[in-house]
Design goal:
- The protein is of the alpha+beta class.
- The strands form six sheets. It has a four-stranded mixed sheet, with helices on both faces. A three-stranded antiparallel sheet has the order 3-6-7, with helices on one face. The chain has a three-stranded antiparallel sheet with strand order 12-11-16.
- The longest helix has 19 residues.
- The chain is globular and about 70 Å long.
- The two termini are about 35 Å apart.
């Protein structure tokens, strides 16, 4: 499931959080949680706290609601039907690199849940005027290395070849022999410690070996993919308070792995290899050999995850679920922003229910945001956030 998309981040206040954003969030929280009581006293307390510290501390209930509402509001996510079930781990007192890494590994274990993937978010220390929050460099907690080869294509994931090279320069020792699915270390940076690397323990990395329901040779390709997609370098913003380290996950939608990670020409580019093994006529694009191979790779992904008891969803089912979510939001009197270019799956788009309509794309908060600097660190391996 493409759980959350990437929007552009508002500028972080230098001295204090945005009071208007804080008030708007508190009004939203109290409107949807009447058991919290009247909003007036809480707004007064928060404004006083901002006067004194430049920021404020969300109550546990506010944090949980804010994280769930951020998922609900994210325009680039097709999988929002279950936003209210997001499990929120309140780790705001954790700000050291080792602590962040350790809780990230626990997040992977708990979210995997024996294959019954649980949507989950771990929220670490927020940005404050007194101290910057920790940063996680990796795009996801589990990413595969990409190794430059003297002669030939990149071994592994080409998207992370520069990131991989920089980590090796920083002292990471890849496993030997090098493989196409070597898990990269997690990089956590704090203002006091700088960037620190942590090798993911085996118990935190659940992977699914890919095989095809009919093509027995597919398993010989040695392709595998990790079970839990934990996005880790987006910024959670709730009522003006910014949480740069807030890794979150849903479960995979099959096309994320099959159509994009494995088939994109700038990633693993498996289509030509599979087409050749299938004996397809690749001499003319009009034979649609790419499409045939593409479908079988995606079938292998769905088949393998299900055969191994790991939660995954196909793009047709997820499209119908999204329209159910849209209807529920409209009945609740809420706008449901959606970015058509992200909601429509990267496979058989016009065959899915989400293709044939327009959406309200206006952004609203709480939400998740992409930082340009965080994106550069995730692909280039630097420069550090704190220098």
């Amino acid at each position: 499931m493409r759980l959350f998309g990437l929007e552009r981040s508002p500028r972080i206040p230098d001295f204090e959080v945005d009071r208007v954003a804080a008030e708007e969030f508190l009004e939203l929280f109290h409107a949807e949680n009447p058991q919290a009581g009247p909003v007036g006293p809480r707004i007064t307390a928060v404004m006083s706290e901002i006067d004194q510290t430049g920021t404020y501390w969300h109550t546990p209930a506010e944090l949980t609601f804010g994280a769930r509402a951020a998922w609900r509001n994210n325009a680039r996510c097709i999988g929002r039907l279950y936003w209210h079930s997001l499990q929120v781990r309140d780790l705001r007192t954790v700000s050291d690199a080792g602590g962040v890494a350790g809780h990230c590994f626990e997040h992977l274990r708990a979210a995997n849940n024996g294959g019954k993937i649980r949507p989950m978010i771990s929220v670490f220390a927020p940005e404050t005027p007194r101290r910057p929050a920790p940063r996680i460099w990796n795009e996801q907690l589990i990413r595969y290395a990409g190794y430059e080869q003297p002669d030939g294509p990149v071994l592994g994931d080409p998207r992370y070849r520069t990131f991989t090279s920089r980590l090796i320069q920083r002292g990471w020792r890849p496993p030997q022999p090098l493989g196409a699915f070597d898990v990269l270390p997690l990089v956590v940076e704090t203002v006091e410690e700088g960037p620190q690397m942590f090798q993911l323990p085996g118990h935190a990395v659940e992977e699914v070996p890919l095989e095809h329901p009919e093509l027995a040779w597919f398993a010989d390709l040695g392709v595998r993919w990790h079970a839990v997609p934990v996005i880790s370098n987006n910024r959670l913003v709730i009522g003006g308070v910014s949480y740069p380290a807030a890794p979150f996950n849903g479960w995979y939608m099959g096309t994320e792995i099959g159509a994009r990670n494995l088939c994109d020409s700038a990633r693993y580019d498996l289509v030509p290899t599979v087409a050749k093994r299938m004996g397809l006529d690749t001499s003319d694009e009009a034979t649609l050999w790419r499409d045939q191979a593409f479908v079988e790779i995606n079938r292998a992904v769905l088949h393998s995850f299900r055969a191994n008891g790991v939660t995954i969803s196909d793009h047709h089912t997820e499209s119908r679920r999204f329209l159910t979510h849209l209807e529920r939001e409209e009945r609740a009197g809420r706008r449901c922003p959606a970015d058509w270019s992200w909601i429509v799956p990267p496979m058989s788009g016009s065959q899915t229910a989400v293709f044939h309509r327009y959406y309200d794309a206006e952004n609203q908060g709480p939400n998740f945001f992409a930082d340009d600097e965080a994106s550069r660190r995730a692909l280039q391996g630097g420069p550090p956030a704190f220098r």
